[in-house]
């Protein structure tokens, strides 16, 4: 049976994500209006194709008169990371039925994945529940969809510099990363990823420096974690 449990713990965890989604959603909606997308269409896009970066990319390609095939292929490649996110969370949902899993995985984003994974690993008293995880995803989607639609509607009256989006996105991820500051491994990986991304940005085009630094440092985090667990088992 599907269930959404919205409580104080969920609201605390969704707050930094919602603040980022609100401003980013407004910017995405304003960009959509430039591509002749209506507020209702923007709302539908945000619900059925719920992936912020893909929406920005898709709208930008529409503005550049790209073909539907090119847009679809690009978005598919960008969203392949969600396969990894879903498979990583699978062990925590082994006993849930398909309808619940379909609804939950639809709401997975980079931010909700990070928060849910950390919560399942660290929240033990009481445990982070499936219903709370679903509520986190649901609230994120609601905030994103409504802010997109409102941004598209209000774009005729409000002017927002689209270049601010990158700064807002960075601030949102920093807000999420604060939750990891109690873990030395995550502090090391976060700092290494940021420094590596800045260095690679000088030599690698098309934002690929972000992908490369993320993959490298994710692998580094896995190696350190497995090495630490192996040492504990030997003891």
What structural keywords apply?
235 residues, mainly alpha, 11 helices
Can you walk through the features of this model?
This protein is mainly α and 235 residues long. The protein folds into 2 domains: 8-161, no CATH class; 183-235, no CATH class. The protein is built from 11 helices and no strands. It has helices spanning 8-34, 39-48, 52-63, 68-79, 81-89, 98-106, 110-122, 130-154, 164-177, 184-200, 208-234.
Number of domains: 2
Poorly predicted runs of 5 or more residues: none
Shape: globular
The proportion of residues in beta strands is under 5%
* Order of helical and strand elements: HHHHHHHHHHH
Q: Helix count, per DSSP?
A: 11
The major β-sheet equals: none
Give the number of DSSP strands.
0
Helicity, as a percent range: over 70%
Distance between the termini: 43 Å
The overall pLDDT average reads 82
Helix/strand-derived category reads: mainly alpha
C-alpha Rg, in Å? Answer: 19 Å
């Amino acid at each position: 049976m599907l269930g959404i449990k919205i409580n104080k713990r969920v609201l605390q965890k969704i707050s930094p994500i919602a603040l980022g989604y609100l401003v980013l959603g407004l910017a995405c909606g304003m960009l959509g209006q430039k591509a002749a997308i209506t507020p209702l269409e923007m709302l539908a896009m945000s619900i059925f194709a719920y992936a912020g970066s893909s929406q920005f990319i898709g709208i930008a390609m529409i503005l550049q008169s790209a073909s539907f095939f090119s847009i679809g292929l690009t978005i598919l490649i960008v969203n392949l990371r969600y396969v990894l996110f879903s498979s990583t969370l699978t062990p925590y949902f082994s006993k849930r039925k398909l309808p619940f899993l379909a609804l939950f995985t639809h709401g997975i984003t980079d931010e909700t994945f990070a928060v849910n994974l950390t919560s399942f690993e660290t929240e033990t008293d009481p445990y982070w529940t499936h219903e709370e995880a679903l509520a986190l995803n649901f609230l994120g989607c609601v905030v994103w969809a409504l802010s997109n639609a409102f941004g598209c509607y209000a774009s005729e009256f409000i002017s927002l510099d689209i270049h601010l989006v990158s700064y807002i996105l960075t601030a949102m991820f920093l807000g999420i990363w604060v939750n990891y500051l109690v873990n030395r491994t995550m502090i090391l990986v976060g700092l290494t990823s940021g420094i590596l991304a800045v260095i690679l940005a000088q030599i690698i085009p098309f934002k690929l420096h972000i992908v490369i630094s993320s993959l490298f440092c994710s692998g580094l985090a896995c190696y350190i974690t497995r090495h630490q667990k192996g040492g504990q088992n030997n003891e």
